[in-house]
Amino acid sequence: MTASHSSGKDPSRDGSLERFNYFKKDDFENDWDKVAERKFCRVYKVKLKLWRETCALKTTTSDYRNMINMSKIGKVKFNYLISIYGISKDPPALVMEYMSKGSLDNILNSHVLMWPKKFQMIHEVTMGMNFLHSLKPPILHLNLKPANILLDDHLHVKISDFGLIKWEEFSSKTEFVEHLTARGNIHYIPPETFTQNPEPPGTKYDVYSFSIVMWEILSQQRSYQGLSMTEILIRVSSGKRPSVEKIPEDKPPESHEMIGVMKQSWHQDCNQRPAFSETILLTEVLSNVLKIPDTKLRGKIRSLNKQERTSNTTADTSDDSSTSIYSLLKKKDFETFKKNLRKEHVSMLFKDNNSLLHHAVASGDKESVQIVLDLGASVNCQSVKGYTPLIIAVLNKFYEICSLLTDCGADVNLSDGDQWTALHFATQAGDDRATRLLLDNKVRADAKEKDGWTPLHLAAQNGHENIVRILLPRLDSVDEQECQSGRTALHVACVYGHVNIVKLLLKQGADVNKTDNLQSTSLHLAADEGHFRVVRLLVNSNADVKIVNERSYSPLHFAAIKGCTGICRILLSKGVDPDSKTNQNWTAMHLASLKGHPEIIHVLEEHHGSVNIQGKDGWTPLHLACHHGQEEVVSVLLAAGADPNLAEDNGWTPLHLACNSSCFASVLQLISHQANVNALNNHQSTPLHLAAQHSNIPIIKALLMNNAQRGMLDSKGCTALTLAQRCNNTEAVQLLDS
């Protein structure tokens, strides 16, 4: 390692960086893996040669001196804050702790999180922010958003980029806001920032930012979706916030208290927002209440971090002797422990029914374990949660102790309260050494936990290709289905996009067309998640591209919803009918129009998909695009020959819907394609009636300029003028009364 400490000479000559590391390009191995790229930075996964440590190298547009300032802040250490190891001059970059699961921004898009995990994330961010604000002086984040909240293997949180934005470095509040909005932060800026108040931001700025992050965690949606920067600014300044109703209905009762914290934290008056120190206890209590399950994807995917549920047991007994012997283990004073150990200690039970053998195993000292066993300890004793000493050894990767326990008769197939065996824990962690050891000792390779998940399911979910290779020769079947969603290991691997595991399973004879409980195949799941390489592999392995699930969705429907152009092309090239309909009579064209994917429209049209096909209630793709304000899709559909005058079952034309949605650009597009400006729906309303109802002046003007008739009466005898008068819109009244 050529990295030197700052006690030596450094180009920056900044003496405040004592004990900080400086790295050169040669300090890293050559294999750099780019894991993220944003407007102002790139992040690479790199490995330090001497430390043999995987790190994140974050290159930024900041100058070298600014990075030195960043690295000073990075010396702050806390569990829920990202660690900065040092800085590199070539290339200019921060060398940071590597977080394998990336940012919260990505996870919110790719996973469906269960409520305990959402609460845990909220609490952990609260912990990190409370720590920053408790420093003297407090460190303000001013850039708190999901992209700066990073996650480890078990989806635990660490906050990054704190303290990098300095209020005093900006000449005005306007410059400060412009800097933030350029980085995509408009969603997280509190309302007081947009006022003329010259006061610098304080800790309540971060509280507001986190309230929006809380909403995004709880709802798993992007706040202010589809609104422009100006629209967001107006809404926030006027006191409007994201809709609480968008938080899923299956929320537990405890969520109401969490939502209360969120709503108080986004209060318009910053003085009314609670400090993190005021909310941290409540978020902890709420998080503890919902500890059990963790993460699921598309319904019922098993916990990613069962290992987190293993508690660190502590002595809880009034017996002085047992407390003393336990404390020796805890202090790792093994020599004194062995001298003082007596046979009667072996039968003692501690908190949660953990035995002395459990604690000896957890200490990692093989000799202590051997002595406890020699004194008659039961090798298969179980704690309240069902953990055996062997499970504890596997969790801690104490391989010699694992061998000792199995040699002494440990039952490798004993499971905990959730029916997880030691093999479940080993495979979930990707521990090939423990996996081999257990398999060599006759563990059941196909053991199922309480929800029917096998070790193969866990390895497939977590991307542990090495474990899959070890397990496959030991299994009679690779198509075992878990209970809740009926998914096989192949289904799970396809959901997560682990293409090499998919290859292994298919080679081992996995049924490529096996369906889960919703009648979805692996191809459905891969298309739904947008995993192009997996889809291509499945199609080339004779997956049935035309099969539909219980809602009559084909893989093409899922690909169209997600805007996966490449996947659509593959499926269409294999003869999928572009006009096949779901149970609700939607085609892929409808779904792409609904979600705003113009490129999918092009692909479907190339394969002779109908742009005028009618679905539920007679709606065409153009109706859906106009109703949902998908302006670019409207343009593409009209260019492809969509009929602007085709009415749905209630007589609404696309122009009616565009006027009702106040989508001015679409109105102009429709008029230019000869849409009938005087068309009547079943209530005898014209587009002008709807524009007047919504007081949309540009649309009213456009309709009038194109010969919309002012005097037409709707079914209630109202003209457009009457409706404008009811809305008290003076400008609309003047236009319609002239």
Write up what this structure looks like.
With 738 residues, the chain is of the alpha+beta class. 43% of the residues lie in helices and 7% in strands. Strand 9 and strand 10 form a beta hairpin. Helix 12 runs parallel beside helix 14 and helix 20 runs antiparallel to helix 21. It is globular and about 105 Å long. The N and C termini lie far apart (82 Å).
Features of this protein?
738 residues, alpha+beta, Phosphorylase Kinase, domain 1, Serine Threonine Protein Phosphatase 5, Tetratricopeptide repeat, 35 helices, 11 strands
Q: Helix and strand layout, with pairings?
A:
Blueprint: E1 4-5, E2 21-23, E3 33-38, E4 41-48, E5 53-60, H1 64-73, E6 84-89, E7 92-97, H2 104-110, E8 112-113, H3 115-134, E9 149-151, E10 157-159, H4 173-182, H5 203-219, H6 229-237, H7 255-265, H8 276-289, E11 295-296, H9 320-330, H10 334-340, H11 343-346, H12 356-363, H13 366-374, H14 389-395, H15 399-407, H16 422-428, H17 432-440, H18 455-462, H19 465-471, H20 489-496, H21 499-507, H22 522-529, H23 532-540, H24 555-562, H25 565-573, H26 588-595, H27 598-606, H28 621-627, H29 631-639, H30 654-660, H31 664-672, H32 687-693, H33 697-705, H34 720-726, H35 730-737
Parallel strand pairs: 2-6
Antiparallel strand pairs: 1-2, 3-4, 4-5, 5-7, 6-7, 8-11, 9-10
